[in-house]
Amino acid sequence: MKKFIRKLSRAKAARSLRFSIFGHEKMAKEKQRSDVPKGYFPIYAGVEEVQRFVVSAKLLSYPIFVELLKKSYQEYGYEQGGVLRIPIQVFVFEHFLDSLKRGQKPLTLDEMNL
């Protein structure tokens, strides 16, 4: 698991929005892999419009996030290079992160209308 997170955190970013379960903050455009703190990894979320998020590794413990990883595998396979990409609308992913931030139980993919 540590190797997986380390590999994901090596990707560079042009624009980033950092999310943790407890909050988020915009990050400078020129930041590179140093903008990924220990215990976090970058993700591209989006279908047509793609946005980069830096999320806590704690997300890996949520079954819905595991479902999102499976959806990513089905769409892109295991051989996708660089940052992990998840085929989910940006606003839906932001809603998912915000619900975690508020301490609410995350919805399932079916409930999120994916």
Distance between the termini: 27 Å
Binned strand content: 15-25%
Helix and strand pattern: HEEEEHEH
**Rg to the nearest angstrom?**
13 Å
Tally of DSSP β-strands: 5
What's the helical proportion of residues?
25-40%
Major β-sheet annotation:
5 strands, mixed
Q: What would you call the structural class?
A: alpha/beta
How many separate helices? 3
InterPro entries: SAUR_fam
Pfam families: Auxin_inducible (PF02519)
Family: Belongs to the ARG7 family.
Keywords: Developmental protein, Growth regulation
Describe this structure in words.
The protein has 3 helices and 5 strands; from the N terminus they run αββββαβα. About 30% of the residues lie in helices and about 20% in strands. The chain has about 110 residues and is α/β, with parallel strands linked by helices. It is globular, with a radius of gyration of 13 Å. A 5-stranded mixed β-sheet has the order 2-1-4-3-5. The protein has one domain (about 1-100). Keywords: Developmental protein, Growth regulation.
